Structures are given as structure tokens and as C-alpha cells.
Amino acid sequence: MEKIGILGGTFDPPHLGHLIIANEVMCSQELDEVWFMPNQEPPHKKKSNAVTNRNRIEMLKLAVAGQPKFKLELIELERPGPSFTYDTMKLLMENYPHKQFYFIIGADMVEYLPKWHNIDKLFEMINFVGVKRPSYNLQTSYPIFYSEVPEIGISSSMIRKRLKEGGTIRYLVPDSIRKYIKENYLYES
């Protein structure tokens, strides 16, 4: 049975932290692939309205280019309304019954697990892999796997803020994404 990692998020924009997490978890958990899954409307936070879903998809395509084990999964963008992990994973398991899923979450989401929609049912369906994030705790009573990942304090909100203020994002995102952002006038003030 193939082991598939799922890395969900707004990816607004995707950055090197996302790619490092995906690669490190893929290696440490011996996953066959990692699917990047941009969400439509995360229930726990609002995504910025700075870019379209099409922009986020194009940036993700650029981010995963050159790594054949990284794929895009657009199931959440194909459904309207809030993206609840439970509903999404039910659909993915129906569509891919011979795959075992590992949902990758940062320590910020590990702390938030008790508030997730249908969390107990979700733990019966899939595995969770937690990774460290600066200023968050990885402790939980839920049975999750852990992967050691270098703590990199890059966030999409920090990148958007820098761009709005005219700052540099070189070495925070792949060059292809930096060029795409510039060519499409994204995140400008």
C-alpha cells in the first residue's frame, strides 16, 4: 500500500519552508509521495484575498517542479465552503482506497487538534505527522508521528508583509515563484 503524505494549507504564497517540511517528512516517514493540497476556505483562519486560486495553483506547480514525488491535489479547491479535513480525507479515501494517508501538520495545528471537526473519527481514518514550528509545542494526547524538521521561521504572512513593504523575498521562496510574483504584480501595496 502506497504511503501518501498530505500537506495542506493556503500556500499564499508557497515558500521554502513548505518544501523542506514535505521533503523531510517524506524521507523520515518513508512516504512514496507528498501531495500539496491548497485549501479553499480554512475553517481556522482566513486566507488573504491578494491572489486567486489560479495564482496559488500556478505557484504550487512552480514549487513542486523538479521533484517527481511531489504532486498537487486540488480536491479542496473543487468544493465550495470551508475545508474540513475530515470531509476531504473521506473523499480521498473513497477515490484512492489503496493508499495510506499521512496528514502533515505544524506544531501550531498540533495544539489546535482538539478543536478540529470530527477529530476522533479522523484519527481512525488517517495518520498525523507533526513537525516543529518556532514558538509552538508538539505535545498532545493524540497518537501522532513526529518528524524532525529544521525549524525555519518562514511564513506566508511574513512574505506577504515584506512584499507589501517593498522588501526582499530572495531565498525565502524558489526563484521561479519570486519571478511569478513579480511578473503578476502579486502582494504589492
In brief, what are we looking at here?
By secondary structure, the protein is α/β, with parallel strands linked by helices. The chain has helices at 16-28, 53-64, 85-95, 107-112, 119-125, 156-164, 175-183; strands at residues 2-9, 33-38, 70-72, 99-106, 127-131, 145-147. It has a single domain, classed as HUPs (Rossmann fold).
Fold and architecture overview:
The chain is of the alpha/beta class and 189 residues long. Helix content is 35%, strand content 17%. The chain contains seven helices and six strands. Helix 2 links the parallel strand 2 (33-38) and strand 3. The longest helix has 13 residues, at 16-28.
Q: State the CATH topology.
A: Rossmann fold
Low-confidence stretches: none
Return the CATH class: Alpha Beta
CATH architecture field: 3-Layer(aba) Sandwich
Write down how many β-strands occur, each being a DSSP E stretch of 2 or more residues.
6
Q: What share of the residues does DSSP label as strand, in percent? A: 15-25%
Q: Give me the secondary-structure category.
A: alpha/beta
| Estimated radius of gyration | 16 Å
From N to C, what is the helix and strand string?
A: EHEHEHEHHEEHH
What would CATH call the homologous superfamily? Answer: HUPs
Strand order of the largest sheet: 3-2-1-4-5-6
- Give the end-to-end Cα distance, rounded to a whole number of Å: 48 Å
List the helices and strands and how they pair.
Blueprint: E1 2-9, H1 16-28, E2 33-38, H2 53-64, E3 70-72, H3 85-95, E4 99-106, H4 107-112, H5 119-125, E5 127-131, E6 145-147, H6 156-164, H7 175-183
Parallel strand pairs: 1-2, 1-4, 2-3, 4-5, 5-6
Helix pairs in contact: 2-7, 3-5
